Amino acid sequence: MRNPFKVVVVTGVPGVGKTTVLEHLARIASRKGLKLKIVNFGDYMLETALKEGLVKSRDELRRLPLRRQLNLQALAASRIVEDSVGELGENDFLIVDTHALVRTPAGYLPGLPFNVLEKLKPDMIVVVEAEPGVVVERQARDRSRYRGDIGGVDGVRRLMEQARSAAIASATRYASTVLVVDNREGAPEEAALKLLEALEGL
């Protein structure tokens, strides 16, 4: 039912600030002597897609044909676990930064389908949330990514609601706990501390 190490999947809509929260988590955990390995699921997908000449940028991933995306997801999950075996022990944490739901031209794609869950076997699924208006502002400040297809405040609100439901649905397969963390503007360390407290309870 589980990997040799503890697996925590951290999800959230684009621009919610997952990566920033995880940067704070890494610093706090290091001070407390906890070993974390933080990986970005999309980075693994992108590396394979670039090698195969399927895309030129990260934002093109979600516009690939559905079956191609599913294949990239499966490969990414396998490689993440393979890279962590031997590096992490039973008291260590593999933290996977990803999305519970991905908006594609063909509709919403689960970020944690069965074949991905089967590899990751998460102990916990975290949903990072923020006020939709704040998320839109964060998206606008990030010039490195294109997120104009998400749909403004209403689009973010709908995606956030659906992503939370998707995370809860994914959690049932491996009896993962689900933690919702509010990433308030200017307070990512507060969100990181809440996440750390939950990790220590696993």
What does the model show?
By secondary structure, this protein is an alpha/beta fold. The chain has one domain: P-loop containing nucleotide triphosphate hydrolases (Rossmann fold), CATH 3.40.50.300. Helices cover 47% and strands 18% of the residues. The chain is built from seven helices and seven strands; from the N terminus they run βαβααβββαβααβα. The strands form two sheets. The protein has a five-stranded parallel β-sheet with strand order 2-3-1-6-7, with helices on both faces. A two-stranded antiparallel ribbon has the order 4-5. A hairpin with a 2-residue loop joins β4 and β5. The longest helix has 20 residues. The model has no long low-confidence stretch (mean pLDDT 93).
Q: State the total count of DSSP E strands.
A: 7
Strand content: 15-25%
Q: What is the count of DSSP helices, taking H or I runs of 4+ residues?
A: 7
Task: Tell the overall outline.
Answer: globular
Major sheet strand order: 2-3-1-6-7
- Whole-number count of domains: 1
- CATH top level is Alpha Beta
User: What is the CATH architecture annotation?
Assistant: 3-Layer(aba) Sandwich
Segments where pLDDT lies below 50 for 5+ residues? none
Helix content: 40-55%
Distance between the termini: 15 Å
| Average pLDDT metric | 93
CATH superfamily: P-loop containing nucleotide triphosphate hydrolases
User: SSE order in H/E notation?
Assistant: EHEHHEEEHEHHEH
